[in-house]
What does this fold into?
Amino acid sequence: MFAIDRIRRQFPVFRLTDDHPALVYLDNAATTQKPMVVIERLQQFYGHENANIHRGIYRLAHKATQSYERARTKVANFLNAKQPEEVVFCRGTTEAINMVAQGLRHQVTSEDEILVTAMEHHANYVPWQTLCKQTGASFRVAPLKENGSLDLYLLGKMLNKKTRVLAFTHISNTLGTINPVSEIVELAKKHQCLTVLDAAQSVAFDQVDVQDLNCDFLAFSGHKIFGPMGIGVLYGKTELLADLYPYQQGGGMITEVTEQESRFKNPPHGLEAGTPPVAEAIALGTALDFVSEIGLLNIREHSQKTLNYALDGLNRLGKVNTLGPGSGTSNIISFVMDMIHPHDVATILGEAGVAVRAGHHCCQPLMQALGINSTVRASFSIYNDTDDADRLIDALKTVQKIMS
It folds into this structure.
């Protein structure tokens, strides 16, 4: 049984005080709240284990290095990667995708095409657009169906022998659309093009098995899976990581430097220049332990149940238009209210203690395709329940009264 009360007690942000009334936090697609075990792990490292890694030969540095590399192994196991060396630590999904895009720059020519989808977050759109400007490659965008799902037929038609990279999201951060990753990767493999998967929204919602999905690269952010901000992961197949030119160069990733040239370490360390976010990586490992203890199947079932309950309430309100596939999909609802700007909706909800996101959600090309400027987005996680959904609906009724 999903013990929601026990789970909520592990998150300090939900503890009630006179200055901190009951919070309905429905902005989980932007960032998740942090359980006490993650916060304590950060404190433990900085209070008792702080040292730079890999080069120190004293006890404290050795312990920090062990903990950091143990976190890498935890991530590899969480993703079912073949080996820890397929995991590169970085600042987040954005940096991970930029690492791939710029790391491939020496391999992309004006004869190539880069293909993305119309539902991409800017982090999986702009880096590829920039790469095309740098190399002269063609930038192409696969369209969506009216229901917010990817048009796989047209995607298949757009893929061809010139397609160098197909970059796409697992779950849309705006619509909640879940893309059939294995099917899309199979289409791409027919044309020998690389696949780059944005898993920022999926890692905290469902099991992500990189061997089963067979994607070439995958990126996610720790702060969206109950971990700290400033830490993320780039997964890549061993031989493909080795082909990436280091996005940054400096300390820690060098084997030899002479006046004539420099030699880089093999991945993952050759892609991790400078002092990495050591404490954050270790705390990310703790966050993954926390998720594994609850169980991703339990998380998915609970999140979908809460979303469907909220969706029913939205549909009963009237004058509310929900976007995307809707019921039975992910943990994200995006909607607009007739004649009421999303920012006004979010402001009134915020005053009622209901935290949602309003805007274009870093998906301006998607907004242009939908013919709108912004939406209200509610996204659910393990500490949300039907009471939270009821407070959302009640607050939206207040919005309609105030703005009518």
Summary: The radius of gyration is 22 Å. The mean pLDDT is 95.
